[in-house]
Amino acid sequence: MNQKLLQSIEGKKKELDRLRPLSKSILEKLREQFFLEWTYNSNAIEGNTLSLHETDLVLRQGITIGNKSLREHFEVLNHKEGIDFIENTIKKKKIFPSI
Known about the structure:
By secondary structure, this protein is mainly α. Helices cover about 70% and strands about 0% of the residues. It contains four helices and no strands. The longest helix is centred in the last third of the chain and has 23 residues, at about 70-90. InterPro entries: Fido-like_dom_sf (IPR036597), Fido_containing (IPR040198). This is Toxin-antitoxin system, toxin component, Fic domain protein.
């Protein structure tokens, strides 16, 4: 890790620590941003060409982006569904014998 990146991470951690304890609204905004970036990066690794901003529009507003395939849109939505399924399964404390 280069020094500039390390300093950036340390600065962001200090800023986050300064805001503690975090309110529910801040936690929800952080969670939304985390899942947006997770979805974008996961799909980009697989060749999806939607930008971070376009991914955000698809996720939060349900907007269809021109000149992008339906497959790319569904990859975004399916990633969210997968995350939601895992979260709901954990909340319900369901245990799958095969996992």
